[in-house]
Amino acid sequence: MLYYLIFIERIILKQKTLFTLLCIFLFTHKFSHAEKPLTVVQEVKQLGIFSEPSKYPEGMLEFFGSACKNFTCRAEKSTRQMALIFKRSKLYHQRKPGQQLYALAMFELFYLNELKKKEKRIEKFLLAWPEKSKYGKEVISLIKLNRSKEKMRKSLGMDLDMSIEKAMERYWIMGDFLQKGEIKNAKISKEIKKREKLLAKYKKAVNKFNSALKNKEDEDLYNKIKKK
Amino acid sequence: MIIKLKKINFFILTLIILAFFLTSLVKGDDDLNKNYNDFVKETNKIRNQLNSLPSSNSTQVSIIDSAIKEMDQAIEFAQENFNANDFQLTEKTLNFIDRSLADINNSVPKEFVNDLSVVDMSELKDKELKEVYQVSLEMKNNKKEKFTSLVKDMAEVDKKGLNLFEVSKNINDLGVKTISIQDIAKTVIENPTIKSEVLESAQKGISPEDLAEQLAEAEKLGIAESTEKLSEAAKASGFDKDVMPSLETMRSDFFDADAHNAAMAEMAADIQSGGIGEGVGAAEAAASYTEADRDSQKAQSEADCTGSCAGDTESGD
């Protein structure tokens, strides 16, 4: 009987050890993805502080017109135009290569307007964090927009530290420059067109999945904010 | 009997805790798995569509078809690694596929081409010239950084079983301009820290003789050194790398207008082919953010709001 009890005790002890090891493994596995530490507060502070742009590119002022003088009107007009440009077909962008760059300048205003609208909520979020996630959804949507802004700026050699005035100017100048080129039209066979279309789809599918893999860390951050 | 009950209790407790941890792990990867399934479905569909296209007499079309087929093994390799939970290796393989598909796409003739060689640079204002030049430089640097990282990734993928250097060589041999031996040689000369591992992998996929020849060529040129010298010479002639050349410099013999125009055209092609960043996709999503979305977000916030939100407006004032 005593032998049997000792045997049971040993099994339980072994199971306990196994259980502890398993827990350690699961914990380390779960958190090993976080290679670069992302603190929520740092991310939120990176969103910036709203300040009305002191100047706009000349072409942008022409686009606003004389009736649209305050920031809200300009930002809303830009947002509508940006949405229109982004919705245009690939063919349109091939024929009007500068438009996409103008839309990126307008995106800067769109972001700034979103920041203006949510500024107070960000403050309240920071005051309540980490105990509560007040206005977490709004903060997540702004972080996502800021990430997009960062990627777009980076591709033209700019970072988030660059002022909005300078960034808009650079986008606009590049847009003007691309518009100055001569659009040459060439006849393309149907066979080539079909392949071009499939290639574009192929690239899009690869890009989408690759972005999902790359954004895994960001998703962890968003979940952290959501779960509070 | 009590011991037996304790034992059963312990087992149940262990199972509950385990189930909790495992579900939390699985839940976190749910979205990624969905993305993966979409990716497999979509790429299989595209590959089937490409395979079912009628064969062509055109050499150009055959080259495109063969180059795309070269991607098959890389796609399968990425899928295998995702299923083995090696996300990093999957990402590295996908980076290569992305670059190769972009190169194949660039080799496809386009219906509309933006010819920037017609732009009279002297008509541009100094400020505009400076910006354009600055952007072209920054884009060049970005490309260089990306390429170095890609070559390093390719060496790592080779260690796990797929030689992407060989895949690149096959695409190049077809006539599509993609990652070349010259590019690899230049990169390893400029980045000695990755030289040994990259060369070890590259030699398996590329002829060691060709690689040695290109390396010798790159070393002979002394790229890093010559770049420095060029930069010094450029500065001496008023052509600073941080600023756009002045009009006087542009008119001088030193300034290679054709090369500059070619660089500008390359930059324009990059922008048009989506080189302005993945962010554009996200910006497009942001652009589709409508008033209806805003209203529903506002309604949700108000619903979530407790007494402490009293007095808050949309702008938070």
Task: Furnish the topology, listing elements before pairings.
The complex is a heterodimer of chains A (228) and B (317).
Chain A: H1 2-31, H2 40-45, H3 58-64, H4 71-87, H5 90-95, H6 99-128, H7 136-155, H8 164-180, E1 182-185, H9 190-214, H10 216-227
Chain B: H1 2-28, H2 30-51, H3 59-69, H4 71-83, H5 87-107, E1 112-115, H6 126-159, H7 164-174, H8 181-190, H9 192-205, H10 208-221, H11 223-236, H12 247-251, H13 257-275, H14 279-287, H15 291-304
Helix pairs in contact in B: 4-5, 5-6, 6-9, 7-9, 8-9, 8-10
Explain this structure.
The complex is a heterodimer of chains A (228) and B (317). Chain A has helices at residues 2-31, 40-45, 58-64, 71-87, 90-95, 99-128, 136-155, 164-180, 190-214, 216-227, and one strand spanning 182-185. With 228 residues, chain A is an all-alpha fold. In chain A, helix 4 crosses helix 6 (99-128), helix 6 (99-128) runs antiparallel to helix 7 and helix 6 (99-128) runs antiparallel to helix 8. Residues 25-37 of chain A have low confidence and may be disordered. Chain B is mainly alpha-helical and 317 residues long. Chain B has helices at 2-28, 30-51, 59-69, 71-83, 87-107, 126-159, 164-174, 181-190, 192-205, 208-221, 223-236, 247-251, 257-275, 279-287, 291-304; one strand at 112-115. In chain B, helix 4 (71-83) runs antiparallel to helix 5. At the A-B interface, helix 1, helix 4, helix 5, helix 6 and helix 7 of A face helix 1, helix 2, helix 3, helix 5 and strand 1 of B.
